[in-house]
Amino acid sequence: MATTITDSQKPFSLDPYHVSEEFGFILPSPLAELPPYYQPWMDIAQHVTELIYSHMLRSHILKMPLLNTQFLESHRELRLAHLALSVMTMGYVWQEGEDDTVKMLPRNLAIPYCEVSQRLGLPPILTHADAVLANWKKRDPQGLFDMENLELLVTLPGGDSVRGFFMVTLLVELAAVPAIKSIPLVINGVQCGDVETVTRALEEFSQAMQGMTDALKLMHVYVKPEVFYGIMRIYLSGWKDNSSMPAGLVYEGVQAEPMEYSGGSAAQSSLLHCFDELLGVKHEAKSGAFLTRMRNYMPPSHKRLIQDISLQPSLRGFVQQQACGGLTESFQLCVTKLLALRSYHINVVSRFITVPAARARQLRNQGNISQEETVSRAPTALEETGTGGSGIMSFLKTVRDRTRDVSI
């Protein structure tokens, strides 16, 4: 029989975590411009790609004035500033590829970047929260939230494939919104023993995960594997676990010792972390340590949501205790859909990393570094790793297999 939630068990809500009912973890209506004082940043950030191709980005950044960050007031201003400074930083470090990296980020970029990062609780490197969650606008403000109507605020080398990669990832985040909204229903339903509410919420949850997989399939339509592997990946790479920058990067004027940060990774999305905590997925030590570290690359309120979900009574234990056919079936369907999503992600990674990596190795072994073969220009340091620094295929397969373990 269902019970009510007592005062000591306040209903679980998404309100304290800066999660939008409409957009989930996506930043609603990101700003496209900063106050005029910061125009020197935007003038460079909006032309990073051209400046990289002309080998002029580093010289432009070195001439940039050192700006005071105190005039950035709202959260949206800080997020756009972080995005702009992040894109400039990735371009500055990787302008000449993996063979001519820099040891130091100049103070006129490093100091404001670290100040903005500290205020947001984000690291001073391009993250999923920047490149995907806060890097979009609608071409027609009244139009649909779809591929035809979405545009990037700032971009990196890779042309249409860069837009495709970030926008498809954004649509995966959007498809997850019904699942995010169902989390409080599940938690509160478990708290008061409401089998019917939990069952219905889990049905919504599994449908949303199917929607995420369907959105992810657009990657094959909008992103060319050879462009992702040969051109884009290096600009998403960090200076931790990367042999091109084994000592990390000195942020001049911030601290004398080099700092190490991982590059952008799907593991920096809060979605699957929340889903794992809700369903009770436990990862093995190495994978779990990497995933936990990736939480430091999320907005602090989103990281806190993941942690707070983990503190709730066990959903899986509740399902087993109730021994109700409909509830068990709904829970099992969620596990099945999460498994399918992770299996499809492995398929995507194989097509966009493993296959091009093999082609790049073949070309290098033949001594054929051809301008026609985009993959031949790919960085060798990242051949079998993700941009976040993980050994990607073994990591993804281990994570998938641990998901299977929560089946009832």
From TrEMBL:
Residues binding heme b: 345
Coiled coil: none
Any one of the GO CC terms: cytoplasm
Xref: Pfam families: IDO
Biological process terms in GO annotation: 'de novo' NAD+ biosynthetic process from L-tryptophan; immune system process; L-tryptophan catabolic process to kynurenine
Sorted UniProt keywords: Dioxygenase, Heme, Immunity, Iron, Metal-binding, Oxidoreductase, Tryptophan catabolism
Keyword set includes Iron: yes
GO molecular function: heme binding; indoleamine 2,3-dioxygenase activity; L-tryptophan 2,3-dioxygenase activity; metal ion binding
SUPFAM superfamilies in UniProt: Indolic compounds 2,3-dioxygenase-like (SSF140959)
Highest rank taxon of the organism: Eukaryota
Annotated family: Belongs to the indoleamine 2,3-dioxygenase family.
Annotated PANTHER family: INDOLEAMINE 2,3-DIOXYGENASE, INDOLEAMINE 2,3-DIOXYGENASE 2
Official protein name in the record: Indoleamine 2,3-dioxygenase 2
